[in-house]
Amino acid sequence: MTMKKTLTIAGSDTSGGAGIQADLKTFQEHGTYGMTALTVIVTMDPENNWNHNVYSLPIDVLQAQLNTALSTGVDAIKTGMLSTEEVIQTAGEAITASGLDHVVIDPVMVCKGEDEVLNPGNVGAMVQYLLPKAEIVTPNLFEAGQLAGIKTPKTVADMKVAAEKIHAHGARNVVIKGGKQLEHDKAADLFYDGKSFILLEAEKTATYHNHGAGCTFAAAITANLANGLPVKEAVIEAKKFVSAAIANGWKLNEYVGPVMHGAKNRFEGTTEITLTEV
Ligand SMILES: Nc1ncnc2c1ncn2[C@@H]1O[C@H](COP(=O)(O)OP(=O)(O)O)[C@@H](O)[C@H]1O
Ligand SMILES: Cc1ncc(COP(=O)(O)O)c(C=O)c1O
């Protein structure tokens, strides 16, 4: 038996809901074989309101992991938290050398609720080294504004403007996640392939237990691509999955509630989504 191989280039979320932990659980849930190239380790301080600390790994350690994983011939790659311009460049060059088409860029800039970029130079480096390689890029509203060089989108009309600008940077398909923050009654994401705009809408779940939603969504898209789904179907299936994962999010402790990464096999078919050309 062989399995499709999926690689995540991302950070470790020690609390297990986001980062490589979310990616590996989601890859497994979709029947793909997960591999990792770790960029940073994020820890949380239980004595101090769960404050995050980010520990970077040396660049040669990242390079060695990329050499290891890519030598096996992976089917799809996802990127997540990339801490510095050097890390972004290294990831971009490894992706180019791999010659792979199935590349999902989740341009993580902040953890939820914060609005300052990890390192300001990262936005330009993502535009230069990652967007031209992206089969799909999956920014949230804040990240979309940063990549597009405009104010954070607030409406579907703003999202369309951002999607066109991000597409012009070389990403072949753009999915802007409206999520909870969009001024809209549904959890709406905008898909743009350079030709048409499609709004994917699901019921908004009233919950704080959504930690890792973005990583989980992008990892599901990556696994779906590795499994042979066309781009639009890969996004649609991932949207159904992440909606079920959020609807079944749970409380890890008083600070954080991860999404249910096991939602595909437990809750498949429990969430409906609608598609509308806009
Ligand atoms: N409360 C919610 N109910 C249903 N879907 C949601 C909710 N919040 C976010 N989503 C969806 O989850 C996915 C991840 O989005 P989001 O949480 O905004 O990403 P990120 O973690 O990168 O900020 C998107 O498809 C988004 O629409
Ligand atoms: C390592 C890592 N990657 C990515 C994220 C982003 O998580 P989310 O999917 O909730 O946006 C986080 C947030 O804590 C993280 O720690």
TrEMBL record:
Q: Which GO terms describe its molecular function?
A: hydroxymethylpyrimidine kinase activity; phosphomethylpyrimidine kinase activity
Q: In what residue span(s) does the Pyridoxamine kinase/Phosphomethylpyrimidine kinase domain sit?
A: 13-259
Supply the alphabetized keyword list: ATP-binding, Kinase, Magnesium, Metal-binding, Nucleotide-binding, Transferase
Q: Which Pfam families does its entry note?
A: Phos_pyr_kin
Q: Which CDD domains match?
A: HMPP_kinase
- What is this enzyme's EC? 2.7.1.35
Q: Is the keyword Ribonucleoprotein in the record?
A: no
Key word Cell wall biogenesis/degradation present in the record?
A: no
Give, as one word, the top-level EC class: transferase
Q: Which reaction does it catalyse?
A: pyridoxal + ATP = pyridoxal 5'-phosphate + ADP + H(+)
Its family remark reads: Belongs to the ThiD family.
Q: What NCBIfam families does the entry give?
A: HMP-P_kinase (TIGR00097)
State what protein this is by name. pyridoxal kinase
Q: Which organism is it from?
A: Sporosarcina siberiensis
